[in-house]
Design a protein that fits this description.
Layout lengths: L6 E4 L6 H16 L4 E3 L6 E5 L3 H11 L8 E3 L16 H13 L4 E6 L6 H4 L4 E5 L4 H10 L3 E2 L14 H8 L5 E4 L10 E4 L6 E4 L5 H8 L32 E5 L3 H17 L4 E5 L11 E4 L6 H17 L4 E5 L4 H10 L10
Parallel strand pairs: 1-8, 2-8, 4-6, 5-9, 11-14, 12-13, 12-14
Antiparallel strand pairs: 2-3, 3-7, 4-7, 5-6, 9-10
Helix pairs in contact: 1-5
The structure holds threonylcarbamoyladenylate (TXA) and magnesium ion (MG).
């Protein structure tokens, strides 16, 4: 692809409200004109384009190096705007969507809904459904309002790389490939939104996130067991097409150790010993509580073992740090949280396919 001159726009508390409004108006007009803007959300940075402009959306796939059968999430500034991308003509789906939005929006929950025909197939990857979310990030919502359109945005990483949770990650992957990057510091959640499909006979969670199945079941007053989790890799076509690809991967080989604490520590130490004999540069990703147990070239902790929100905030940065330090063998302890474990296993290629998103 042709290199473009990427502008970086810092938006923080040092700006006056006029300066901030001007900056966001400028970024909004880039989107409205068919350009690509990387913007912060509470989960990860997104690579945005006008969701209703097929040509602009094609540029997203090109910039990411992403397969075009993999649909995008349309971001809106509030619930009333979902009618620009989804058909909610009343009935059960609408009721569920309203209930979930009332409880979790703005926030890290994406809903898959029936698509409006005006949404180009580029945005939905050819599906007749559309994924929609309203981010809990004021800058993101102001940007969407300024653009006057729903904003299609995948995570702003190159395909297969860990999602970006701070602006340096975005620059590393996307400098020269997008028109503008909005720098607003670190993302507060750190892993991507939970995706729930409301269009099937059963409610299904297509991607786990920090909003758990139990919270969704409670909000909708349905039993937890009525929510399904499609097995990725076994369906044709898969329900969340992106989940069939290897994701979030550091460049080194990565392994996740599961089992009891003792088993994890023993097997991980044995593997480190082997790596050392083979002359490999080793990296360990573990909880604060167990740092002292491991001898490796690089040790990165994701925080205390029970502080899952902190682990989520640090996870992708830690995987990128392993790359920055040129670690050849990344050895990670399992994390006792479904969404975090999902990301670790995908990064290790131990769950899902072998090509990249
Ligand atoms: O937190 C997030 O969701 C971030 C921020 C930027 O909002 N976005 C994000 O987008 O993670 P992306 O493109 O990296 O992941 C979207 C996932 C993919 O696995 C894709 O296959 C799935 O959502 N998806 C999108 N539309 C879908 C649809 N209509 N049906 C099923 N899965 C869909
Ligand atoms: Mg992604």
């Amino acid at each position: 692809m042709n290199r473009v001159d990427t502008q970086i726009l810092r938006i923080d508390d040092t700006l006056s409200s006029e300066e901030r409004s001007l900056a966001l108006a400028r970024a909004g007009s880039v989107l409205a004109a068919g350009g690509l803007v990387i913007f912060p959300t509470e989960t990860v940075y997104g690579l945005g384009a006008n969701a209703l402009d097929a040509q602009a959306v094609r540029r997203i796939y090109e910039a990411k190096g992403r397969p075009s059968d993999n649909p995008l999430i349309a971001h809106v500034a509030d619930f009333s705007e979902i009618s620009r991308v989804a058909c909610l003509s009343g009935g059960e789906i609408r009721d569920k969507a309203e209930t979930l939005a009332a409880q979790f929006w703005p926030g890290p929950l994406t809903m898959v809904l029936p698509k409006r025909k005006e949404v180009p197939k580029e945005t939905s990857g050819g599906l007749d459904t559309i994924a929609v979310r309203c981010p809990d990030q004021e800058i993101a919502r102001e940007l969407i309002r300024c653009a006057h359109c729903p904003v299609a945005a995948p995570s702003a990483n190159r395909s297969g790389r860990p999602s970006p949770t701070e602006v340096s990650h975005c620059i590393e992957d996307m400098d020269g490939r997008v028109d503008l990057i909005i720098d607003a510091g670190r993302c507060s959640v750190g892993i991507e939104s939970t995706i729930v499909d409301l269009t099937g006979e059963k409610l299904s969670i297509l991607r786990q996130g920090m909003i758990g199945a139990a919270q969704i079941a409670k909000a909708l007053s349905v039993p937890l067991r009525s929510i399904t989790y499609p097995q990725t890799g076994r369906e044709d076509p898969p329900r969340a097409p992106g989940m069939k690809y290897r994701h979030y991967a550091p460049r080194g080989e990565m392994t996740v150790y599961t089992g009891t604490r003792e088993q994890i520590t023993r097997e991980l130490c044995e593997a480190l010993e082997k790596d050392r004999r083979a002359g490999k540069k080793t990296g360990v990703l573990c909880a604060d509580e167990r740092v002292a147990l491991y001898k490796a070239d690089v040790i990165i902790t994701y925080g205390s073992e029970k502080d899952y929100p902190a682990a989520a905030r640090r996870l992708y940065g830690a995987l990128r740090e392993m790359d920055a330090q040129q670690v050849e063998a990344v050895r990670a302890e399992a994390i006792d949280h479904p969404a975090l474990m999902d990301r670790l296993l995908r990064a290790a290629g131990q769950n899902g396919g072998q090509s990249n998103q």
